[in-house]
Amino acid sequence: MEWSKLQVDFMKRALEVAERGRGKVSPNPLVGCVLVKDDQVIAEGWHDHLGGLHAEQMAIHDAEKNGHSPNGAVAYVTLEPCNHFGRTPPCTEALMWAGIKEVIIAHEDPNPTVRGAGIKALEDAGIAVAHGLLESEAALQMRPFLYWCKNRRPLVCVKLAVDSNGSVDDRSKGAGRFTSEACLDKVHLLRTECDAILVGVETVIRDNPSLTIRRVESNKQPLRVVIDPNQRIPDSANLLNDEFETLVMGKDFRSLSALLNLLGDKEVQRLMVEGGPTTIGHFLDQGLVDEFYLVQSSQVHQEPVASNIDSKRLLNAGLTQVSTEHWGDETVSVWSRDS
To answer: Judging by DSSP bridges, how do beta strands 196-200 and 167-170 pair with one another?
Structure first.
């Protein structure tokens, strides 16, 4: 289907407003909506938090609040509207009641609770529906959600910090961070976009981390997962002595694939692996890494612990470098697997 420049611009705006829900709506996807009349945007909406209005509902409310009737408007929505009762009523009904005449959708919803039912409900109500506008852009924005719908396991994201020579730790001193404050802020921001954080027991013993979101605003804390097949996690570990949930995979733990299936059943859509090189190496060697953030510092460790993870190993694991970023004083190479 041929799309006009105006239509493309309206959907781009819907994708932009969807970003306002990032880190706040999982296991729901990011969704944005704009309402258009006479080639002018009259309202915008996005899914802001779990239990809150969905994007279509917020846009309709925004229109009415500002004195615009949504009757006869065209709705540009980044994801197929839902047609079932969940935490909120169906968005299809909201669009019908508002008198929307046409709905243009970026991406169909593969979730079994929707999967074409939203489009059918709108068409049965006499509303014109078109889809596929900026579909690939919407798919990238909702990647963890779409991955989970397809595979019923989380997308695996790894973050690893190394010094200028590829070392992950300095044994000449006690455990401690060697990256900048601004870099740490970015790590905590990345945590807000993940449903769970995983480390091996060696990281718990060496660093005693909390693995919580502290430096940026967040309305939730991730599930903490510790791989500990020999039951070595100390009773005094921070992870075991706060109010947040920790899942310790002990002697019954058999394989990473089984763990990912278990997390998928818990609706974990994006798993962040922050463990050491041994744990990360297992994920890489089994072809289970989908995203990799390799953070390189200019620091030089005096008694280095080699990561043994470099571009060659990432390439061999099926990853491709997609960008280079700067997190404070650190340079970050971002790798991804096609999915």
So the answer is: unpaired
